[in-house]
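=== RUN LOG ===
request id: a7f3
mode: sequence -> structure
chains: 1
length: 446
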Amino acid sequence: MRLVHGNEEGRRLLARLRRPLGEAELPSAVRREIRRVFGADLDAQAVVDRILADVREGGDAAIQRYNREIDGVQAGADLSLKVSAQEIEGAYAQVDEEVVRALRFAADRIRIYHQKQLDHSLAGFDEGGLGQVVRPLERVGMYVPGTTAVYPSSVLMTAIPARVAGVAEVYMATPVAADGSISPLKLVAADIAGVDGIFRAGGAQAIAALAFGSETIPRVDKICGPGNIFVALAKKTVHGLVGIDGIFGPTETLVVADDGADPALCAADLLAQAEHDALASPILITTSDGLAEAVMREIEQQLESLERREIADAALEGQGLAIVVGTLEEALALANEYAPEHLSLAVSDGERHLGQVANAGSVFVGGLSAEAVGDYTAGPSHVMPTGGSARFSSALGVHDFLKVISVVSLDETALAELGPAAVVIAGAEGFTAHARAIERRLEGGR
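=== RESULT ===
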């Protein structure tokens, strides 16, 4: 973890952490796999374009072929794309009862939070023949990555807001192990969340299947969920044909701390995100040299006992920053420029400083507000904007699964008030038919 001083140096290094999607060089092992599967040296976007075209044309057969060739599903494994009800039911016997209870507890918390969100999102109105109605999307697909590392919490955090919003059909696509199996944790979480169907499909082929539909997998209206570079590029490519929740990169946590913060807790929060991914960004901005040094010592000590120590160490080495600035105002200004996924305010009177936060996926106020609780049981979805996109987007919520339809219902009085100016504008734009369509109504249909 690198220690630096001053706004300008901090700003320069934070800017270097922002990498445009697809800019990084693919690892040599991935390039070898591309040559093996496609018989050519393709960049990531070319791979995605090939897979999208193949699935659009070949449907189930193309999805199954890529499941074998890319994800390594072995001959003789269960190659059926849809997971059976019996397999889902059987998953409960493979998950510890305490974990099932915890998932149900988390699901209740997530449901309650998003129901409150929904209560503030259904603001239809009708005033003088003008208004709006709010409607849920009809069909949503979510992609859940991982075969060795699995994230049942992400299943809950995506499916439940969609269900609360009133989405009629929610489907899940996920990669499978070599024997065709899916982690029972994912299956149980999907069942608790009320997912309508689970499909064996990983990577860009899953995004293609959800965007275009196949013989087995239904076409959806919106695709949600994170994934690797190929998943992210596939989502970006199909955006417009379907909605997407966002383009997600590695996780980010930025802790703003003053000299009264607990260095052990600051270190624990940074490590909690660093263990996600070697490309995660654990960042501390503080007004205290002494705190920065104490946090770095704590990180070294706490690293020793982590199961995912190598991953966390790589994230700290590659992206870890401790930035010392003069004032909390400067610290918060830097945080707003960076627009982190997670922002922890480890400062006295954090509620007062919350008013200075403009850009963040989620804010954790005070020393007891562990970001990791937000990952699981606080209630808000942990699917949040990364890569600086918190400047213009929000954490996943019921609003992502609702659409607003404008309504115009004019009577004679309203038409007489609105029509003449509309005729003038239509004429100025050269749209005679527009003007005449209004004039006929003003003249009583003649």
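=== NOTES ===
The chain has three domains: 85-242, 249-392, 410-442.
The CA atoms of residues 172 and 198 lie 5 Å apart.
=== END ===
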